[in-house]
């Protein structure tokens, strides 16, 4: 199982660097399978924050700080509320709901993208942030809601990639704190060797993503981002149904 986890972390970190998101989508099923729903989400959030930090160091000049400020407060509230509700809810059922929300959001975004550019009101951005925070707390899938926002608003890839990184760092930290406060026993138990191996996989993935991002066109990265989101949502639904 550790080899699957390492492969997932490597590819997830590369996806994070290339498309601006994808860590939770790629790594979530494997980490939850290996460490359980509660500890898995904590681990996804911890590693995801580290992966996003590595990307943020390279892209911080393009961050849209005002949009970030609109997304974060609603995400904070949603994370706390979802974490409390999760402690009283069947984990499989909650994961199915998260996956369905991702599919519906991306489907709506895809239809909007085919018609015309949509002017997203700041209030609507707050809603995207809330959905993102809730899905991050439920299954470590905070990226698809941002992907939907990016598609609908034609958010330039470079700006989206840069802004998403501090968002993921902050929301991941809030998710870990919330989980530990509500369910203290959710801290993942790992050996020192496993932790070092995961760090090595992250560094390798960041390097691969850095090289790939130089020659992949924006359209290809956007398609990859949507495909990863759809795949992650499908896995979340299937995994949740099997747990329910």
Q: State the helical fraction.
A: over 70%
Strand fraction equals: under 5%
Series of secondary-structure elements, N-terminal to C-terminal? HHHHHHHHHH
Mean pLDDT: 82
Count of separate DSSP helical elements: 10
What structural category do the secondary elements indicate?
mainly alpha
| C-alpha geometry | globular
- Calculate the terminal CA-CA distance, rounded to whole Å: 23 Å
Radius of gyration: 16 Å
Strand segment count: 0
- Count of discrete structural domains: 1
What about the largest sheet?
none
Low-confidence stretches: none
Question: In short, what is this structure?
Answer:
The protein is an all-alpha fold and 244 residues long.
Highlighted features:
mainly alpha, 244 residues
Structural account:
The protein has 244 residues and is an all-alpha fold. The chain has one domain. 84% of the residues lie in helices and 0% in strands. It has 10 helices and no strands.
């Amino acid at each position: 199982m550790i080899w699957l986890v390492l492969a997932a972390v490597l590819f997830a970190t590369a996806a994070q660097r290339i498309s601006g998101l994808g860590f939770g989508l790629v790594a979530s099923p494997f980490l939850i399978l290996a460490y359980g729903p509660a500890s898995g989400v904590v681990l996804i959030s911890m590693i995801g924050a580290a992966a996003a930090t590595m990307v943020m160091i390279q892209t911080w000049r393009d961050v849209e700080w005002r949009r970030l400020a609109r997304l974060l407060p609603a995400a904070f509230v949603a994370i706390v509320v979802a974490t409390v509700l999760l402690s009283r809810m069947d984990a499989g059922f909650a994961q199915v709901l998260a996956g369905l929300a991702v599919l519906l959001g991306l489907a709506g975004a895809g239809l909007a993208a085919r018609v015309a550019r949509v002017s997203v009101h700041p209030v609507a951005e707050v809603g995207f942030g809330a959905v993102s925070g809730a899905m991050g707390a439920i299954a470590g899938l905070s990226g698809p809601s941002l992907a939907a926002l990016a598609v609908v608003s034609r958010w330039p890839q470079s700006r989206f990639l840069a802004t998403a990184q501090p968002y993921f760092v902050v929301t991941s930290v809030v998710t870990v704190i919330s989980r530990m406060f509500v369910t203290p026993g959710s801290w993942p138990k790992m050996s020192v060797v496993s932790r070092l191996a995961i760090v090595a996989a992250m560094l390798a993935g960041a390097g691969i993503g850095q090289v790939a991002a130089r020659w992949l066109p924006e359209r290809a990265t956007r398609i990859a981002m949507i495909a990863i989101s759809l795949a992650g949502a499908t896995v979340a639904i299937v995994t949740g149904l099997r747990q329910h």
